[in-house]
Design a protein that fits this description.
- The protein is mainly α.
- It contains 15 helices and two strands.
- Strands 1-2 form a two-stranded antiparallel sheet.
- A hairpin with a 2-residue loop joins strand 1 and strand 2.
- Helix 2 packs across helix 6 and helix 10 runs antiparallel to helix 14.
- The radius of gyration is 20 Å and the shape is globular.
- The relative contact order is 0.12.
- The site of geranylgeranyl diphosphate (GRG) has 19 residues, from helix 4, helix 8 and helix 9.
- The site of geranylgeranyl diphosphate has 19 residues, from helix 4, helix 8 and helix 9.
Length: 321
């Protein structure tokens, strides 16, 4: 990844004179690699601190095994970036960011179970149930999911309660039948069947898109975002949510298990309908690029302040894992 990534906000928007005579300030560039790494390290440290002296010890170990197994930490970083865009300090949203990564991790643990995707590799290591057994993996997932709501409701002391209530609502919608669970059910029901583009979009908007939407919306809610910004973030998250999944489908075909840290070629083995299967690789990539462009356009009015979210949208299509 380049050390300094310019966003589409490169046109100077600051320091220009209406007469055009004053010297212009340097074009705005944004060190995305530096931003991403700094945010990732802060998230890692907050995740590490989030699991207290859990009892019994075996449960704590299984929860930590998956929560601290690495991963891109895209969801908490989106949450922090949205909080900053809405005018809040990133730390204000950290408990919510941790909660989102807990929900994501829980969904990965359950998705890998034999009754679901039946996978034995995740984030470059054996899956949770391979190490701790199925019963413990289910319970570690349950404990992470419930701890997520505890993070928001009981461990966000600096956020007004009415905002926390809205965040709890967002996380509930994203996790349950209207979100991940609903998407997963339709996904499982469609295995081995031919699926049209509308159904595929439904699955991904729920299985993947719903949590990405919750990340940016709840980050913004924590900082008291107004309705205009929330609407723009809805459009942004829909674009990145679908684009993320299209790229995921492409990587499943083009990348190795070593690079992905999970079993490559899984969609083919499980006879799943994917974007490359329906549209071909080239058209799938074109579609992902178009969705990211739409997502970025929604944040255009915020210009430089949206730089992290704009760069994160580009990262979604340029990532290799
Ligand atoms: C949340 C109550 C509740 C239940 C979960 C199992 C299930 C129901 C849903 C499955 C959701 C799922 C696994 C969706 C796939 C999302 C996806 C593309 C994950 C990969 O995300 P990355 O690439 O992974 O961000 P890292 O490891 O980098 O975090």
């Amino acid at each position: 990844m380049a050390a300094a990534v310019s966003t589409s906000q490169d046109t100077p928007t600051r320091g220009t004179s209406s007469q055009g005579t004053a010297p212009q300030s340097a074009p705005f560039t944004f060190d995305f690699a530096g931003y991403l790494e700094a945010a990732r390290l802060r998230v890692e440290s907050a995740l590490d601190a989030s699991l207290g002296p859990e009892r019994p010890e075996s449960l704590r170990e299984a929860m930590r095994y998956s929560l601290l197994a690495g991963g891109k930490r895209l969801r908490p970083i989106l949450c922090l970036a949205a909080c900053e865009l809405a005018g809040g300090q990133a730390d204000l949203a950290m408990p919510t960011a941790v909660a989102l990564e807990m929900i994501h991790t829980m969904s990965l643990i359950h998705d890998d179970l034999p009754a679901m995707d039946n996978d034995d590799l995740r984030r470059g290591r054996p899956t949770n149930h391979k190490v701790y057994g199925e019963a413990s993996a289910i319970l570690a997932g349950d404990a992470l999911l419930t701890r997520a709501f505890e993070m928001v409701a009981l461990r966000s002391p600096d956020v007004p309660p009415e905002r926390l209530l809205q965040v709890v609502g967002e996380l509930s919608l994203a996790s349950g039948a209207p979100g991940l669970v609903g998407g997963q059910v339709v996904d499982l029901e469609c295995e081995g069947k031919s699926v049209d583009l509308d159904t595929l979009e439904y699955i991904h908007l729920h299985k993947t898109g719903a949590l990405l939407r919750a990340c940016v919306i709840s980050g913004a809610l924590v900082a008291g975002a107004d309705q205009t910004l929330q609407n723009a973030l809805h459009t942004y998250s829909r674009g990145i949510g679908l684009a993320f999944q299209i790229i995921d489908d492409i990587l499943d075909v083009t990348a190795s298990s070593d690079v992905l840290g999970k079993t490559a070629g899984k969609d083919l083995t499980a006879d799943k309908t994917t974007y490359p299967k329906l549209l071909g690789l080239e058209e799938s990539r074109r579609r992902a690029d178009g969705l990211v462009a739409e997502a970025k356009a929604a944040l255009e009015p915020w210009r430089d302040r949206a730089a992290p979210l704009l760069a994160l949208a580009d990262y979604i299509t340029s990532r290799d894992r």
